[in-house]
Amino acid sequence: MSEGSHPHGLATAELKMTTVNRQLILQSRPKGMLAPGDLQLKEARLPELKDRQALARVKYLSIDPTMRVWMAGDSYLPAVAIGEVMRAFGFAEIVESRHPDYKKVDRVTGLTGLQDYVVVDSSVKQSFQKVPKIPFVSDTVFLGTLGINGLTAYFGMEIAQPKKGETLVVSAAAGATGSIAGQIGKIRGCRVVGIAGTDEKCNWIRKELGFDAAVNYKHTDWKAKLAAAVPNGIDIDFENVGGEIMNAVLDLMNLHGRVILCGLISGYTKEDPSLASFGTVLVKRLRVEGFIILDYAPRFMEAATQLGQWKMFGKIKDHETIVEGLERVPDAINMLFTGGNTGKLIVKV
Ligand SMILES: NC(=O)c1ccc[n+]([C@@H]2O[C@H](COP(=O)([O-])OP(=O)(O)OC[C@H]3O[C@@H](n4cnc5c(N)ncnc54)[C@H](OP(=O)(O)O)[C@@H]3O)[C@@H](O)[C@H]2O)c1
Predict the structure, then answer these.
(1) Whole-prediction pTM value?
(2) Does the fold of domain 148-294 match that of domain 3-143+319-348?
(3) If you measure from the C-alpha of residue 23 to the centroid of ligand 1, how many angstroms do you get, rounded to a whole number?
(4) Domain residue spans in the chain?
(5) Contact predicate 185/161, CB 8 Å
(6) Of all atoms in ligand 1, which is nearest to the CA of residue 261?
(7) Of all protein residues, whose CA lies closest to atom 43 belonging to ligand 1?
């Protein structure tokens, strides 16, 4: 095909890149962790751009525990269908546009899916958010601290209504969401205790992020250590894990404490997850509130502005674990369930 005959009118080198779109297709619903073949790498031809469409090259993919939920069945979003490109948040750069709102090199975040290129089309229900280029700020921050995880931590902590001097416990505390939720707790004047799965993670959240204490739940005496770390009991549980960890936290909660149900990751790879004991919720008169970050979309800008300020002034620090290559996404997803990541887990496409 000659350069001029290509529908997107791209230069030869770029044309070569853009005729093929590698995609990870959901081939089977995983049982437990992802097995080889659950997601299969396939090649598709890029569709011709229609009016009011733009083509974006996906640069980074956000690897989120909820992807495992989307693979399993319908929940707060419909399940990804077998044979479909796997749903995922990503960061992409516009490479060609027939859309008045997008021009080449504009940068967007949104549901890109696990693929090299995505068609940005405002006529279908698929929203992309343009993001600015900020000097000295990495693109990946829009997937983590200024993206889903920062926003989730922000609104979860808003629901928690923390008061100065209260004790907050965060599980999966060295992860993308937990690490920020804990730091917001510090900004709000709480005593903050994190639960994480390695001594390195515990050191990081204590020494670098300023948590007051950290407990490694893989140590046999961790429950005693958790009790020792909360001499005044627990007022707020920012819950990311569920199961045994959540039960241990609930046991230490003060009467009328608040449980912010952000996630229950310990159950995502199980057929029959044990959540937590609702007997304790009753006896301690706890207030439990679940939330899904998508409900807060109209307020994302407000939250991102505050998170950006905190980050700029060093009140929030973050860390990223970056895995390279679209083909490594299945391994990266599994890392979330074995604790292979510290902070935000991202795949560089
Ligand atoms: N409600 C919402 O809208 C919303 C939005 C985003 C995320 N979330 C939830 O927030 C939680 C954290 O998500 P994230 O994206 O920030 O991931 P993340 O915390 O960066 O990564 C997951 C971490 O969870 C820990 N973990 C995994 N399995 C565990 C188990 N069985 N027991 C104890 N810890 C376990 C691992 O750390 P260790 O090494 O410490 O085990 C792992 O690194 C998830 O539950 C997710 O579903 C909710």
Answers:
(1) 0.94
(2) no
(3) 25
(4) 3-143+319-348, 148-294
(5) no
(6) 1
(7) 339
Strand 89-97 versus strand 107-111 pairing type: antiparallel
Our mutation pick for probing the ligand 1 site, out of 240, 266, 288, counting the most ligand atoms within 8 A of Cβ, is 240
**Per-residue pLDDT tens listing for the chain (349 residues):** 333 334 443 444 454 456 899 999 999 999 999 999 999 999 999 988 999 999 999 999 999 999 999 999 999 999 999 999 999 999 999 999 999 999 999 999 999 999 999 999 876 655 899 999 888 889 999 999 999 999 999 999 999 999 999 999 999 999 999 999 999 999 999 999 999 999 999 999 999 999 999 999 999 999 999 999 999 999 999 999 999 999 999 999 999 999 999 999 999 999 887 777 899 999 999 999 999 999 999 999 999 999 999 999 999 999 999 999 999 999 999 999 999 999 999 999 9
Cβ-contact 46, 56 below 8 angstroms: no
What are the Cα distances from residue 62, in Å, to 58, 85, 328, 344? 11, 15, 13, 8
Residues in the chain: 349
Q: In sequence order, what are the residues at sequence separation of 6 or more whose Cβ sits closer than 8 angstroms to the Cβ of residue 48?
A: 7, 8
Q: Does the structural domain 148-294 have CATH classification 3.40.50.1010?
A: no
3-143+319-348: what fold? Quinone Oxidoreductase; Chain A, domain 1 (3.90.180)
